[in-house]
Amino acid sequence: MKNGLFICSWLLCVFFLPKGAHAEAVPSDTIIERPTFFSPIYTTVTKKKPTTFKPTGDFDQRFEYIGSKPVSIWGYRIGVLVNDRFKVGVGGYFYNQREMLGNTYKDGRAELATATHASFGTFYYEPYLFRKKRWEMSVVLEAGYGVIYTDTLGMQQDWSLRSHSIKSIFPVGAGLSANLIMPDIRGLHFLTYLGLNGMVGVRKTPGSAGGGLYWSISSAIFIDRIFTDIKYGVRKK
């Protein structure tokens, strides 16, 4: 008799209790597990979303004052966009700078001149603050290693004075980056892969005079958007 009452109560739990519990809306990222004889109550298990990786890359030209002269720093970055939330990758940069010192002759030569060439690489981490349909903003954090080559030239009649030095640098920087994305025009969807990038920040090279406030305005190509359309197809409006 006791066993019969136990089985009846168990069946009541299976057929009546779950109906009320299952009436509530369940997020799309959950799995509903149906009751069994040994587990009469519905349970929900959150699905773990897979990690996504998309390739990224962009030209990275920055304008910066090194010493008293403005310098264009040329570079390129490659990396991956993780879960559409942040980028990680590497960048490579170089710049050339020439300064005339002392008296300058009529032919353009000076008594003394310095020629500087620098090349360096960085690792960067770029989490997004906002990602809207037509614009996005992110924080750029970077650190790296490079070398500065400096030649000092004495341009007196026989160019008698000349020196050469090599110095290691460890640049670090932080800044804000914003992208404006072209609108999606019917028949011209490829325009959404293009846009305008603006960046402002500070880069320092401890132990060296190089580094300071930098800024940049340039065109942008969004490789991650191209990759998404190739993999998943262009969504219909």
List the helices and strands and how they pair.
Blueprint: H1 2-15, H2 17-22, E1 30-33, E2 43-46, E3 53-59, E4 62-66, E5 69-82, E6 86-104, E7 110-131, E8 135-154, E9 162-169, E10 172-181, E11 194-204, E12 211-221, H3 223-232
Antiparallel strand pairs: 1-2, 3-5, 4-5, 4-12, 5-6, 6-7, 7-8, 8-9, 8-10, 10-11, 11-12
Portion in beta strands: over 45%
Q: Helicity range of the residues? A: 10-25%
Q: Separation of termini?
A: 65 Å
Helix-strand string: HHEEEEEEEEEEEEH
Number of strands: 12
Rg (CA only): 30 Å
Please name the defining characteristics of this protein.
single chain, 237 residues, mainly beta, 8-stranded antiparallel β-barrel, two-stranded antiparallel sheet, 3 helices, 57% strand
Description:
- This protein has 237 residues and is mainly beta.
- 13% of the residues lie in helices and 57% in strands.
- It is built from three helices and twelve strands.
- The chain has helices at residues 2-15, 17-22, 223-232, and strands at 30-33, 43-46, 53-59, 62-66, 69-82, 86-104, 110-131, 135-154, 162-169, 172-181, 194-204, 211-221.
- The strands form two sheets. Strands 4-5-6-7-8-10-11-12 form an eight-stranded antiparallel beta barrel.
- The chain is elongated, with a radius of gyration of 30 Å.
- It starts with a helix and ends in a 5-residue tail after the last helix.
